[in-house]
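Researcher: I'm comparing several assemblies side by side, and this is the next one on my list. It has 890 residues spread over two chains. Same procedure as the others: predict the full complex and return the structure.
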Amino acid sequence: MLDSKSPTGPIETRWERSKFEYKLVNPANKRKYELIVVGSGLAGGSAAATLGELGYNVKCFCFQDSPRRAHSIAAQGGINAAKNYQNDGDSIYRLFYDTVKGGDFRARESNVYRLAQNSVSIIDQCVAQGVPFAREYGGLLSNRSFGGAQVSRTFYARGQTGQQLLLGAYSALSRQIAGGKVKMFPRTEMLDLIVIDGKARGIVTRNLVSGELDVHIADAVILGTGGYGNVYYLSTNAKGSNCTAIWRAHKRGALFANPCFTQIHPTCIPVSGDYQSKLTLMSESLRNDGRIWVPKEIGDKRSPEQIPESDRDYYLERRYPSFGNLVPRDVASRNAKTACDEGRGVGETGLGVFLDFSDAIRRMGEHTIRERYGNLFDMYQSITGDNPYKVPMRIYPAIHYTMGGLWVDYNLQTTIPGLFAIGEANFSDHGANRLGASALMQGLSDGYFVIPYTIGNYLASNKIEKVSADASEAKQALDEVTSQTKKLLGIRGKRTVDSFHRELGKIIWDECGMSRNAAGLNKGIAHVQALAAEFWQNVAILGEGNELNQSLEKAGRVADFCELGELMCRDALDRAESCGGHFREEHQTEDGEALRDDEHYQYAAAWGYKGKASAPVLHKEPLAFDYVKPSQRSYK
Amino acid sequence: MHIWRQKGPQSEGKMVRYELPNANPEMSMLEALDVLNEQLIEKGEEPVAFEHDCREGICGSCGMMVNGVPHGPVRATTTCQLSMRHFKDGDELFVEPWRASAFPVIKDLVVDRSAFDRIIQAGGYVSVSTGSAPDGNAIPIAKEDADRAMDAATCIGCGACVAACPNAAAALFTGAKISHLGLLPQGQPERARRALNMVAVMDEEGFGSCTNIGECEAACPKEISLEVIARTNRDFLKAAWAERPVSDKGAGAG
């Protein structure tokens, strides 16, 4: 059984007490430690900056040309914090409660409470950095309600909150780079983890411009490398977002938790053709005024304005009269899929539903709608060529976030001592479903306010022997990366990397997407295995290893996505219940809602890698709910 | 499509013509390049290297000259958001990397923009370490100031301003950060030093001088206004005039 090292006692005091009990590293000794941070987004960037400020020597790595480009930058909506500036009844306890419930009772209470506590300091820190949050005329910070929350606790900077928070972390990081405490390695990708005497002691990297492979040794390694939504090929993630760092760490012994917990966002622009490279999210605030519908009749191909009111099915309003179009993300997504599966989808592909603003425009006038959503309408029009003031938008769900990730204990340490995972790369705080505006909060909480304490405790409580880049474990890791690169370049097959990735994405989307069943998952596993086998025989990578070679970069990532995709199916198969974003068709209520099975599945599933030839091994972390009692979510 | 092909930083480059029979109006410019690359790989030719990541206009990775204009002919649009709908069947497109000596070409359409990072490192921050911040509402900021700061802060660091400028100046980029922080109370203590240091590094990195032509504003996908350059000039002049060496006798007693 896994030990979460979760503190006991009253939940309000657990983090305070832990911070006091953690051992400290003497200020003069901090400069004797070398730390590696992989990733420069909200989690990695904030961690690297803060650890540099504390006096550690930090090396920070990112694959992009600059740390400012990490995918956190694309987050639109906002960041939650239990400030209760609006005097509307918010509190740390309420944010904690909402997050545990929203996660459908599959997250660890201690971690979530700490997250809610840290949320308030995050806002203070970001304001002090000069993050230009939206403000009221009186000069105070503005808030909005987001994602169905009943209090206004979301702080935002137009529709670019992620960008502004990331640029804040990037500015703090830049200051440390200038001061010499952080050495930045852009255009550098981590390709393996070095484990010596059971501890994480470094990484193997590839310089993406020169192709050089290097060994970096450190006293601890922190992964803030984001999620794995790109396993689906089409997602709202940036094209470069990948699972390679966490997957290779997993293959070196770090357990991977809840891989099947993925979040599908209901309001994205639908796929328009085979060449499509990514999906674009439209903020879910659109559901405040838009009405979602499909034709009542199967195969009704009339254009929307020709379909009279009586032939339309506003299915969310019909099925969920009290929440209507504002049901949570997972419910909205699943219902759109059902309508399309029935053959009532709209648009050329039949994979889309209408999001109609004509009622709202009639009621409030085009001017008001333009004020509220003008930039989103413009974006929609520039991508689709349709004018949403005149014709309904077409939307469809898309993969957006992954709740699963490396298993970590309360200290954010993985099952490999000295290896930590922060932000979306870990599994810790969102359970089976993440609430809107909570991803930014978690990334910054982990990076600014958790890891700086827990890493000190690790360094002060362990004797960390001196090792060099010549250690046999380091050499072996370097050799393995070298030979994988050679192998990939030597295949010289016929199919492009992207064509494999597209096929993988389709398999995982079909079998382990919005709804899953045992037969499909078994089929998915077989398909992915066959695809991976073909990949290693037939992938076409031109060019050499000692130069900028984007096909080679992608190939390594797709190889890892194949292995992770298989594990996702296995995890989904094991979890014979429905919860949050994981919907097993065999387990639903009479009227088609998710049916949890707390008696058998109230655990985090952490998988151990056992080599290519063997099945992964499941370890369970039982979850206890001492404060928020599990209940069935209902939005009827 | 005529595309700049260059094997490496030291190699000679040249324009190469490619046919794109499968282009369709629903594609983005980058998707058209994806399709071209698939064709090339299947024929055994090396794909075109280009930078891209978020593909929704916010990360600032992508950027190329399309028919001589940074990010192509549509205003307030990054290359990744540029739809092929804006071109006609049979159009010839000319695609090149950013051209500026401070942005050396790495390969094909990929350039090295690390000079931008070094400009930010010279002072594009507020020196506040984690944990020392007062309550977020302790300092009210007029909405107009916050909004103006936000206008400047939307810069995505793509480099279109430099590519558009006949002098290859980085004044719009640098000015955006100087303005963002200079408009907020948090940025005041370091305002003078920030302007001096960032402008100095901008010059060291080999960017040209600003002569108020305004091409940068026209090319900026985030529509950052020339105002930020005026603000930089004011801060810089004031700082250069007022800044004098401060005594360096160590901090605090005891």
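Model: For your comparison table: Chain A touches chain B through 80 residues (CB under 8 Å).
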